[in-house]
Amino acid sequence: MTMRTALRPAALAFAAILVAAACTSAATPAPTQAPTAAPTTAPTAAPTQAPAESATPAPSVAETTPIPVDECAPAQIRTLNAGVLTIGTDNPAYPPYFEPSDPNPAPWELGDPTNGKGFESAVAYAVADRLGFTPDKVNWIYVPFTNSYAPGPKEFDFNINQVSWKPERAETADLSRGYYFVSQAIVAPKGSELSKVTTISGLKPFQFGAMVGTTSYDAIGNVIAPDKEAMVYDTNDAAIEALKNKQIDGLVVDLPTAFFITAVQYEDGVIVGQLPQPVGEGEFFSLVLAKGSPLTKCVDQAILAMRADGTLGQITQTWMADKANAPVFQP
Prior knowledge:
globular; single chain; 11 helices
């Protein structure tokens, strides 16, 4: 009895410890995953594909827009033959548009386009300069008048040959802005009945002639409207011979050419007068280029700049000042 009594307090104490342990385990649920220790340093972000570029701000719209290229800058100009500007004109090359050299280089007759002297030669070299071509980089070739604006490919970069702007010509070739505004004139033998006429109505009974395909020929029908059908010739030289031989009473040409004819080619001829300008802008000479030529825009820019800065006026004054005055026919 004494031993059982002595063991009971010890047993009770041990039982109490077991119960306390069991209660503690039930109050704290078992963790589902081991906790992660807090990092001691800042985490490293995952690298981008191109970390160096990501640090640079995106370019603005203005920065990504291509810089426009000046198509007419000398470095951008494209010609038929690289580095050379090929210019066409007719032959003979008549003064005052082309003045002669001594001697003329082949194949040029009367005038020499290559020397820069004469109205159209000077204009051509001025345009070439604006396009970035020095005189030694200019090559001249012979191109018959009507071939210059005929349909098809061209052997020149541009042609200069008193070609007046006409809508039908503009359908088959590019025609530039005007570089000279011109009137048509009548040449007749000195002392002839025609040489005394001062009115358009007084011109109607006479026989006139002109070169084929020219605005001079058009003026006979559109302005004079004579009683007789106009005679047509392949060249001005042939028309002048017809006038000398009295096959025609009068020859219609542009006014500067009329001055040359009466001064050099037909000294017995006289300028009767000039026809009135048509209503509107009037007749003007254009450079001729192949249809759709990329040079057309550049040539137009050059001519407009030459008008604006006085270059074209100076050339005109030098070569044409004394060849632009003649009485105008009245109605």
